[in-house]
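To: structure desk
From: M.T.
Subject: fold request, one chain
Message: Could you run this one when you get a chance? Sequence is below, nothing fancy, just the single chain.
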Amino acid sequence: MIFIGILASIAAIGGLCWLLFTLAVFALPFFAGVSAGTWAYQTGAGWLGAIVIGFVTAALTLGLGQFLLAFVRPIWMRLAIALAFVAPAALAGYDATHGIVKHAMPSDAWQIIFSVIGAIAVGVTALIRVTAMAAP
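Reply: Done. Structure tokens follow.
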């Protein structure tokens, strides 16, 4: 039974890592949607209005990013737009990795080292996926 528990834990961690790498591209739209939804709720829009405004803001952020990556010509502007999507993804990767590593090792220095490695891995994956979203 312990062996099955260990395998299930490894499968769960692998599934969460796959989910993190898959959804890392959407960190900026998610943050924008949550921020707009929170603002709408605090200004009196109610739960339904806040959810609708959050979804609309997230969709517009993702759509605007894809549109700009497809039609902006200067490479430095495309890089700046891609980095706007990659920075929140790397931050989410750092936090997710730190949450996992915090339970696995007692040394603070090694926790930070592995968290930075996780942030770099998620950031690079997000950069590749963001640039793949843009039309050639």
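Reply (cont.): The mean pLDDT is 89. Let me know if you need anything else for the meeting.
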